[in-house]
Amino acid sequence: MEQRKVWCRYCEPQYSRRRKPVLAVGNPSNSSRVGILSVDPKGEVDFLVEAGKLKRLLRTGWVKAGVPHPESVADHSYRTALIAMLFADLGGLDGGKMIRMALLHDLAEAEVGDLTPTQKEANPIWKLNEKKAVEHLTGFLPPDLAMRYESIIEEYNKDASEEAHLVHSADKLEMLLQAVEYVSVVKDEERLMRLRHVHFEGGFEAALEKEIKSRVSAKNSEA
Known about the structure:
- There is one protein chain.
- The protein is mainly α.
- It has a single domain (about 40-220), classed as Hypothetical protein af1432.
- The protein is about 55% helix and about 5% strand.
- It has helices at about 40-50, 60-65, 75-90, 95-105, 110, 115-120, 125-140, 145-155, 160-180, 190, 205-220; strands at about 20-25, 35-40.
- A two-stranded antiparallel sheet has the order 1-2.
- It starts with about 20 loop residues before the first strand and ends with a helix.
């Protein structure tokens, strides 16, 4: 089998981590199935361990709002991915791309932490820090995969496509839904529901927003 070499900036001398090339392996018994065999899976496990920090990183906004046992960044990313999946399947868009984008959109926070909008305003280089964090984390992966994930994250950050725009909407809707779910356990409802400013003009996003916000009144009536 011929080995296909791919240039990798992480393999240059200035980077201490060196990755071996990736081999594409086809399954003779099923030509429709193609797998990727990494010569050394250590990098992939390192990537998963680093990304796994998001499971233990609490969402700063909910902590500041006084939510007891608030969700983690990974919790948020999971349901954002579910909303993105719904958008894609209902709208006939690229579901795989949108789910990847939703799962990766907060990846940098595994290194830089979950910054609030106020904290970002006070740190003019937060975008550069997040970019460096993404490059470090994807650097554990095979070069072609690293570039693919970096491209998806950049597309999301620049809101450069319909898919990216909808994943941004999914991110906001997930926060709004989580706020509604926390209303019953947080006394400072006004502070918690600062996300009422989330608003969409038309489409399924607007329908979801209306339905989610209607549940605040329903929860209050139950209390």
